[in-house]
Specification:
19% strand, Pilin-like, 160 residues, 7 strands, single chain, three-stranded antiparallel sheet, alpha+beta
Length: 160
């Protein structure tokens, strides 16, 4: 009697399993990319809130907002918010209102690129003094709360 039963998998079975694994990996990567984007946006909103708080402390102490027009925050000479305003942090002057001004999470490994009002791509937070107020520009990759993806700005009273 001959025993023709082979042990193992057929080529079709192996291809089906590989296709299923590829589909699962693809769905997982898409989910992770969305989670990363959402995390960066949450970080941006938190950073803007922290910068606004530091600017409010500065304004309470100095009765004005620091000078600056379209400066990219968290880079170059705008690393620290001390009693002289935005500084490079080499020798900060007391009081220090924000020792480490944050950069946009997506811009950390690039050169400074300050946001402007109509930016349609990721950019660094930027600051402009506006009389008795200020404007902080920032960019969102997706929607957060009631803010859609794209360019936004914050003032002492609200975030748009």
């Amino acid at each position: 009697m001959l025993n023709n039963k082979k042990r193992g998998f057929t080529l079709i079975e192996l291809l089906v399993v590989i296709a299923i694994f590829a589909l699962i990996a693809n769905v997982t990567m898409l989910s992770l990319n969305k989670a990363k984007k959402d995390a960066r946006d949450a970080k941006r909103v938190d950073n803007i809130s922290q910068i606004r708080s530091a600017l409010q402390l500065y304004s309470t102490e100095k009765l004005a907002y620091p000078a600056g027009d379209g400066v990219a925050l968290g880079s170059g000479s705008n690393l620290v918010l001390d009693s002289n305003g935005w500084s490079n942090g080499a020798s900060p002057v007391s009081p220090i209102f924000m020792y480490s001004v944050p950069r946009d999470p997506k811009m950390i490994n690039t050169g400074p690129n300050p946001c402007q009002g109509g930016d349609i791509s990721p950019c660094d937070y930027s600051y402009t003094q506006n009389g008795n107020d200020y404007i902080l520009y920032f960019y969102l990759e997706g929607s957060v709360a009631n803010m859609a993806a794209g360019a936004h700005y914050a003032t002492k009273d609200e975030v748009h």
